[in-house]
Amino acid sequence: MDKGMEYLQKGKYQEAAAALEKNIQDEPSNPVHYINFGNLLSSVHEHDKALVFFQKALELDPGAAAAYYGAGVSCYKAEKFKEAAYLFQQSLGRFPDDADTLFMAGMSYLQCDEPRRALPFLMRSSELNSGDSEALFQYGLCLAHLNNVEEASKIFKKVTELPEEHADAFYNLGVCYAFFEEYEEALQCFEKALTIQPGHFLAGNGRKNMQEKLNR
Questions:
Q1: Do residues 159 and 171 lie in contact, with contact meaning Cβ atoms separated by under 8 Å?
Q2: Which PANTHER family match (predicted)?
Q3: pTM for this predicted structure
Q4: What is the chain's pLDDT, residue by residue, as a tens digit (216 residues)?
Q5: Displacement of CA 96 from its chain's centroid (Å)
Q6: Distances (CA, A) of 175 to 100, 141, 201
Q7: Which class in CATH covers the domain with range 156-216?
């Protein structure tokens, strides 16, 4: 592994910067070094500066998917979600089945309040990485935003069946059950969410509402 990237993974940012800067000096025409330096700057929240390095990498290699992805992450962290969505799609032009890039493109469109545009990206990401609870969960949320409650409930149920316990998935599954007036099942989901995360405010409200409905 490159020494600069090794330092970066260990959180030794000053050492990483020195090593990565030397790489650029030694090989100024290698786009990988600019991508790595951009990733370093992005990791310390210097997003505008990071974009300069990603752009330089793209000048050297217009097809550098990693540069588009890195630039997309920088824009996403800087809350420039439209730009992020465009950049992630450029990266997907080179690697259309990269689950992480598909996920980030979908999340960018969700942040732009465009769930219909987000849906195909999140659906494909969850298909490629069915064991990723967050990818599945966000796909379920997207379906819920589009009022497809029945399909959303199926996805939330899949998340609850994964090894990693996901309080928000149980809460949202409970909301789906409540929508269909299946109050016992909804109550069980809210209680499970509170078992995982005792301070889950929304699940607490949900449990109270279901208890009131069942006691009428």
A1: no
A2: CELLULOSE SYNTHASE OPERON PROTEIN C, TPR REPEAT-CONTAINING PROTEIN MJ0263
A3: 0.92
A4: 678 888 888 888 899 899 999 999 999 999 999 999 999 999 999 999 999 999 999 999 999 999 999 999 999 999 999 999 999 999 999 999 999 999 999 999 999 999 999 999 999 999 999 899 999 999 999 999 999 999 999 999 999 999 999 999 999 999 999 999 999 999 999 999 999 999 999 999 999 999 999 987
A5: 17
A6: 28, 11, 14
A7: mainly alpha
